[in-house]
Automatic annotation (TrEMBL):
GO terms for molecular function: hydrolase activity. Gene3D superfamilies: 2.20.70.10, Nucleoside Triphosphate Pyrophosphohydrolase. Residues 33-161 form the Nudix hydrolase domain. InterPro entries: NUDIX_hydrolase-like_dom_sf (IPR015797), NUDIX_hydrolase_CS (IPR020084), NUDIX_hydrolase_dom (IPR000086), Nudix_N (IPR029401). This is ADP-ribose pyrophosphatase. The keyword rRNA-binding does not apply. It comes from Pseudohongiella acticola. Its cofactor is Mg(2+).
């Protein structure tokens, strides 16, 4: 960032008075530009003993499989965003409620928070959206485990199939940190009972 969005003055990167973090600050009007984590919201769509996955048509991780998810928009709740992303990427409708939250992942290294909601497909109709090459239902043994796009998706899927065997679906929160070789280290922080 070089210029202020408000006055077009020069912007520098420094710690403003009363703060302890580097921020972009306007030298002319003294506005401080706070950068906060991005929320990614998505769903774990279920139909019987299968889950619905999308093969990505966009980067990052183009061609790999994921759960329908994307960036939350201003003016929507996390649940509304998850429902919208599922419609956009998978052409699917889900039966979701406010208590459908299933997994939450904190990714402080890349300033993201992922929230996945678990729900049943409302019908057998689904289709690839513009960001998906294809959409398909998979049983546990058929999931393309080596071609899952993101560690948080793989973790959510593995946890779901384990929970399904127990018929118990607690809400879990994880921290995800990346090692220097970009391997995800996922730590369970809390679990509801």
């Amino acid at each position: 960032m070089k210029f202020c969005h408000y006055c077009a003055g020069q912007v520098t990167h420094h710690i403003p008075p009363g703060d302890d973090k580097l921020r972009y600050c306007c030298l002319s009007c003294d506005v401080v530009f706070y950068q906060n984590p991005n929320n990614i919201v998505g769903t774990l769509p279920i139909s019987g003993d299968k889950v619905l996955l999308c093969r990505r048509a966009i980067e990052p991780r183009k061609g790999l499989w994921t759960l329908p998810a994307g960036f939350m928009e201003n003016g929507e709740t996390t649940l509304e965003g998850a429902i919208r992303e599922t419609r956009e990427e998978a052409g699917a409708e889900l039966n979701l409620t406010e208590d459908s939250l299933y997994t939450l992942f904190n990714l402080p290294n890349i300033n993201q928070v992922y929230l996945f909601f678990k729900g049943e497909l409302a019908s057998s109709e689904f289709s690839a959206g513009i960001e998906s090459l294809e959409v398909e239902l998979f049983s546990e043994e058929d999931v393309p485990w080596d071609d899952i796009a993101f560690a948080v998706v793989k973790s959510t899927l593995q946890q779901y199939f384990e929970d399904r065997r127990k018929q118990h679906y607690p809400v879990r929160m994880y921290d995800v940190r990346y090692s220097p070789d970009r391997k995800a280290e996922i730590t369970l922080i809390s679990e509801s009972h």
